[in-house]
Amino acid sequence: MFPWLAMGHLTPYLHLSNKLSERGHKISFFAPTKTISKLEYLNLHPHLISFVPLVVPYVDGLPLGVETMSDIPPSTAHFFPVAFHRLQNQVEYLLHHLKPDFVFYDFAGWIPALTRPLGIKSIHHFIVSAASWDNWLGGFKAGSVLYCAFGSERVLRKDQFQELVLGFELTAMPFFVALKPPAGAMTVDEALSEGFEERVCGRGVVHRGWVQQPQILAHPSVGYFVSHCEFVSLWESLMNDCQIVLIPNIKEQYLNAMILSGDLKVAVEVKRREEDGWFTKEGVRSAVKAVMDE
Known about the structure:
- Keywords: Transferase.
- This protein is of the alpha/beta class.
- The chain has 2 domains: 7-124, Rossmann fold (3-Layer(aba) Sandwich); 130-293, Glycogen Phosphorylase B (Rossmann fold, 3-Layer(aba) Sandwich), CATH 3.40.50.
- It is 38% helix and 16% strand.
- The strands form 3 sheets. It has a 6-stranded parallel β-sheet with strand order 7-6-5-8-9-10, with helices on both faces.
């Protein structure tokens, strides 16, 4: 584990370490020497989680002896990334010695260049977005937020992308959408129809990257899940209390949707044209409203 050296990053990384240790994984946790004492009480598995001390290099402009962003006044904070960058030699030496299977990192973008020649896999685990996309959800009452995601491979056409998010707007509900940019658009922002973000400001978010779906579905504010009905999403939705709306895309997903909406009657599928599978914003709104009926 090699998080950014700030308590708001070190602590979540230690929580993750505890979860992984529950499954028997052995973890070396990189942290500044004096800061380790502030983290030890959070280590629930000291027989599996070992702290590895780092000596933060001195950088002209920083107070002497600083180890984390928490030690630095705002006026000199811009010097700390320089010190963090200069940890590369220490980290490389430790990786040669420890030979881990994986390295988790967030701000140290140079980690993959160190791990690749050593045959070590690097995992970019970025906790800032998780803390943010949690603060936002916490602003709404229980079971009121609609969440939509179609996985890492599904790419909608631009016109269908727009119909989908416009359908969420029509529900008048708060919503959180995590989708890849559609075909024909370089970014999600480019794909949104004119005025959309201004109209849904405060109650609607279209996220541009990867999210922690199990944690989102388990959040008390999330009450509805619009899914493409791929197997993993299918099980994640059934393991939580949210109502399910389905928009399948390929054969396997259509079969899953038939089981959930037909045999099990635990979901509603968005109506589509038979000839080309087109769905409308009104169809999206109708499906969501149908699962809201107690």
